[in-house]
C-alpha cells in the first residue's frame, strides 16, 4: 500500500473519529492541531488503524508517535 | 487476531454497504429525532470506531429517552476493577439495537468496593435501575497466594465465591434495590502446566476456571444475573478479546476492538430484564429447512436426512429449531409456496424432524413476506419486535428489514452447516432466567393459522422494488447456456404454464428453426445475480398468432414485475415477426396451480377451455398495454 492510499484510508478514520467530514491530514499534524484529540480519541484512532489496516501496533510504537506523518510511516512499514 | 465481530448483522465490509450506512447516518444526523433511524444504524456489524461514532450521535439526539418509548429506559451503573470507560458506548448502542434507551455511569477506576460499601453521592444522583459488575481476572487472582496449597486455594475460592461476590450483590440490592449483572471471568492468565492445569492448587488459570464453573449456580442462589463473558470470548478466542499490551498500557481487560461484542452481550441481558427477548422464530422453508425447492423437486427430491453432508446440515437446523421450541421459543413458517406443497414434507417426509404440530403458525402463499410476517405476529398476538426471521434469500431479508425494521433478520450464511451457530451467536432468544412459563409457551400457541389471502401493501413494496436496481437480461438460446436451459425446462414445476419437457437436442433445434424462438432471461439486482430465471419458447402459428409454447420461471423472483417484463419481451418478438396476437396455453399439472390464472392477470382473454382442464387464451397485440415495472432491460443477441 502506498502513502496516498494509506493517507486516504487514515483520513476516513480521522473523519469518523472526529465527526468532521472535511478534515484533511498532513504529515506535520499533531494532537494539538485537532480539537478533541484527547486520550480517548487516541485509543479510537489506534483501534481504527488496527482494525481497518489489519495490523497490530506495539506499545512502544504507539508511544513513539509524534505526528500524523509518523503514523503513516508506521502503517506503511507494517503493511509493506 | 480478528475482532469478535457481530457477523449475524449486515456487514459494512463492502464499499456500497458502507456508503449506504454513511448516507443513512447523515440523514439521521440531519433530522430532529429519528429513533427508528438510529436503531437501523445500530443493526449492523459495527466496529469500534463506528460504534463510538453512532453513540455520539445517539447522545446528541437523545440525551433523554424518546417520549412514548414502550420499553423502560435503563440507567446502568458499571462498576469494576479495571478500565471500563471504553465499553460504555458499545453498551448504549447494543441497547439501542433492541429499542432500549440506556444511559451508563462508570464508577471510579478500581473502586467498586468503596462505591458499594458506603454511601456514594455520584451513584445516588445517577439513580441507577441496574448494575453491572465487571471484575478482571488479574484482580480476582489476587485472592490466590502464589504458593497456595489445596486448602489455601479452596479458602481463596470461597472467599471470592461466598464472600466478595455475594457481598457486592447484596449491597446493590440493599442500597439501590436494583438487579445486578455479573460478568464471568476472562481466562486471560497463562497456564503453568497445560492440560492438567486444574490439578495445580496455585494455578491462576485453574482458579479462574473453577470460579467460572461455580458462577451460574452462585448467581441463581443470590439472584444475580450472570453475563457469560468467558463463554462469549471462547467463541472467537480469548486472544481476540484480550490484548496483554493493552492491559499494561491502559488496564483494559476487554480490548476496545472487542467492545462491540461486549456491549452486545450486556445488551442481551438488558433485553432479557426488560422483556425484549425474542419469542418466535419464523422460518423460511426452501433452502432454509431443507435443500432445494419442494414445489419443483418434490418430496423425494429435496435434500434432508442422513446420507450426505448437506442433508445432515439441514437436519441439524431442524434439530436446533426443535430444541429451541422445546424450551419455549415459538416456531412459525413463512414460505413462498403453494400451501399444500409446503406442508407435504411436514406430513410425509420420513426424515423431517419438524412436524406440523411444532409450528404454531404456518403461512405459505405467494404474497409479500413482510405482509405475511405481520399476519404471523397478529395471529400469535405477539409484537413484531419479538420475531426473528430466518431466510436464506437476501432479497426477502432486505425486504423485511425495510418494511418491518423492528423484526430481527439475521444474515444467514450460504452454508447450511453454519446456520444453527449463526442463530445461537445472535442470541435473540437468550434469557436471564428460566421460568415455567417459558416451557409452556410453545404448547399454547398451536392454533394453526389457515391460509389467508392478504392485502398487499402495494405502495411500499413498489418503492422497495424501485430501489432494487433490477436488470433483466435476455436473448435467444445459445450454446453456452443450453445446458442450464435444459435443466430448467425439465425441472421447473410450479411457475410452468405447459410443463412441456424437452431434451437438449430438441432445444438446440429451436436455435436453427426460423418458425420458433427460444428466449432465456437472467435477473440481477443489488443483491447480485439471480442467474437464469426464466425460459420462453414461442412458435409461429399458420395464422397471424404467435403461440407461447413454454413459459417457465423460478419462483424466487415472483412478484417483482418479471412476469410483466417477460410478456413485454414476448410481445416485441411477436411484433418483430409481423404477428398481431399472442396465443397462451395453460396446461394444468399437479404442481402448477399458481399460474392457473396468470394469463387472466396479464390481460389475456379465455378463448377455449378443454375437458382436460387445458385453457387457451388470446391477446390481440393492439389491446396490450405496457405495464410499468422497475426493471431495466438488457437485450443480448
From TrEMBL, chain A:
Transmembrane intervals: none
InterPro entries noted in UniProt: ACP-like_sf, PP-bd_ACP
Boundaries of every Carrier domain copy: 1-79
Name recorded for this polypeptide: Acyl carrier protein
TrEMBL record, chain B:
NCBIfam families in the record: FkbH, HAD-SF-IIIC
Domain of life: Bacteria
Native source species: Gluconobacter japonicus
Protein name in the entry: Methoxymalonyl-ACP biosynthesis protein FkbH
Transmembrane segments: none
Cross-referenced InterPro entries: FkbH_domain, HAD-like_sf, HAD_sf, HAD_SF_ppase_IIIC, SGNH_hydro_sf
Amino acid at each position: 500500500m502506498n502513502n496516498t492510499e494509506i493517507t486516504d484510508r487514515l483520513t476516513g478514520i480521522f473523519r469518523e473519529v472526529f465527526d468532521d467530514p472535511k478534515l484533511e491530514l498532513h504529515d506535520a499534524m499533531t494532537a494539538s492541531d485537532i480539537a478533541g484529540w484527547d486520550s480517548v480519541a487516541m485509543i479510537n484512532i489506534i483501534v481504527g488503524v488496527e482494525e481497518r489496516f489489519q495490523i497490530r501496533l506495539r506499545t512502544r510504537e504507539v508511544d513513539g508517535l509524534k505526528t500524523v506523518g509518523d503514523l503513516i510511516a508506521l502503517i506503511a512499514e507494517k503493511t509493506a | 487476531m480478528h475482532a469478535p465481530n457481530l457477523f449475524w448483522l449486515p456487514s459494512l465490509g463492502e464499499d456500497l454497504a458502507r456508503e449506504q450506512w454513511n448516507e443513512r447516518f447523515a440523514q439521521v444526523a440531519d433530522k430532529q429525532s429519528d429513533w427508528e433511524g438510529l436503531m437501523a444504524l445500530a443493526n449492523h456489524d459495527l466496529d469500534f470506531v463506528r460504534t463510538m461514532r453512532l453513540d455520539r450521535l445517539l447522545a446528541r439526539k437523545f440525551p433523554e429517552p424518546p417520549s412514548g418509548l414502550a420499553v423502560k429506559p435503563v440507567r446502568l451503573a458499571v462498576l469494576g476493577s479495571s478500565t471500563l470507560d471504553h465499553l460504555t458506548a458499545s453498551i448504549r448502542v447494543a441497547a439501542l439495537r433492541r429499542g432500549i434507551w440506556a444511559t451508563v455511569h462508570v464508577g471510579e477506576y478500581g473502586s467498586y468496593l468503596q462505591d458499594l460499601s458506603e454511601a456514594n453521592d455520584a451513584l445516588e444522583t445517577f439513580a441507577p435501575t441496574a448494575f453491572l459488575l465487571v471484575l478482571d481476572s488479574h484482580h480476582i487472582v489476587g485472592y490466590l497466594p502464589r504458593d497456595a496449597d489445596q486448602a489455601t486455594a479452596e479458602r481463596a475460592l470461597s472467599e471470592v465465591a461466598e464472600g466478595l461476590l455475594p457481598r457486592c450483590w447484596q449491597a446493590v440490592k440493599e442500597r439501590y434495590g436494583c438487579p445486578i449483572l455479573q460478568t464471568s471471568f476472562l481466562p486471560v492468565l497463562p497456564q503453568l502446566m497445560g492440560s492438567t492445569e486444574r490439578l495445580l492448587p496455585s494455578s491462576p488459570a485453574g482458579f479462574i476456571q473453577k470460579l467460572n464453573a461455580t458462577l451460574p449456580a452462585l448467581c441463581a442462589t443470590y439472584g444475580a444475573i450472570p453475563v457469560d463473558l468467558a463463554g462469549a470470548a471462547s467463541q472467537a478466542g480469548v486472544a481476540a478479546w484480550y490484548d496483554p499490551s493493552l492491559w499494561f498500557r491502559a488496564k483494559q481487560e476487554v480490548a476496545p476492538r472487542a467492545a462491540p461484542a461486549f456491549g452486545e452481550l450486556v445488551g442481551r441481558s438488558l433485553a432479557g430484564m426488560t422483556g425484549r427477548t425474542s419469542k418466535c422464530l419464523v422460518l423460511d422453508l426452501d433452502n432454509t429447512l431443507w435443500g432445494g425447492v419442494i414445489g419443483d423437486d418434490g418430496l423425494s427430491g429435496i435434500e434432508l436426512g442422513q446420507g450426505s453432508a448437506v442433508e445432515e446440515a439441514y437436519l441439524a437446523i431442524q434439530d436446533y429449531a426443535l430444541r429451541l421450541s422445546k424450551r419455549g421459543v415459538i416456531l412459525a413458517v413463512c414460505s413462498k409456496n403453494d400451501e399444500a406443497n409446503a406442508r407435504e414434507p411436514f406430513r410425509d417426509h420420513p426424515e423431517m424432524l419438524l412436524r406440523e404440530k411444532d409450528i404454531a403458525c404456518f403461512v405459505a402463499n405467494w404474497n409479500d413476506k413482510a405482509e405475511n410476517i405481520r399476519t404471523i405476529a397478529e395471529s400469535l398476538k405477539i409484537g413484531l419486535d419479538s420475531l426473528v426471521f430466518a431466510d436464506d434469500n437476501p432479497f426477502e431479508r432486505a425486504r423485511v428489514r425495510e418494511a418491518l425494521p423492528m423484526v430481527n433478520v439475521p444474515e444467514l450464511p450460504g452454508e447450511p452447516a453454519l446456520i444453527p451457530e449463526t442463530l445461537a451467536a445472535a442470541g435473540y432468544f437468550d434469557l436471564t432466567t428460566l421460568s415455567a412459563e417459558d416451557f409452556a409457551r410453545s404448547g399454547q400457541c398451536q392454533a394453526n393459522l389457515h391460509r389467508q389471502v392478504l392485502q398487499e401493501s402495494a405502495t411500499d413494496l413498489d418503492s422497495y422494488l424501485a430501489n432494487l436496481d433490477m436488470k433483466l437480461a435476455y436473448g435467444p438460446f445459445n450454446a453456452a447456456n443450453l445446458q442450464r436451459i435444459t435443466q430448467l425446462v425439465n425441472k421447473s414445476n410450479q411457475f410452468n404454464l405447459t410443463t412441456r419437457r424437452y431434451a437438449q437436442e430438441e432445444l438446440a433445434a429451436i436455435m436453427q428453426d426460423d418458425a420458433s424462438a427460444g428466449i432465456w432471461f437472467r435477473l440481477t439486482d443489488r443483491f447480485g445475480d439471480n442467474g437464469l430465471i426464466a425460459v420462453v419458447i414461442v412458435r409461429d402459428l399458420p395464422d397471424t398468432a404467435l403461440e407461447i409454447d413454454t413459459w417457465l420461471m423460478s419462483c424466487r423472483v415472483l412478484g417483482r414485475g418479471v412476469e410483466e417484463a417477460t410478456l413485454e419481451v414476448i410481445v416485441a418478438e411477436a411484433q418483430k415477426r409481423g404477428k398481431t396476437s399472442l396465443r397462451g396455453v395453460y396446461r394444468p399439472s399437479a404442481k402448477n396451480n399458481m399460474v392457473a390464472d396468470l394469463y387472466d392477470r396479464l390481460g389475456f382473454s379465455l378463448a377455449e377451455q378443454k375437458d382436460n382442464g387445458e385453457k387457451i387464451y388470446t391477446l390481440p397485440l393492439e389491446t396490450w398495454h405496457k405495464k410499468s415495472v422497475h426493471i431495466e432491460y438488457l437485450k443480448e443477441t
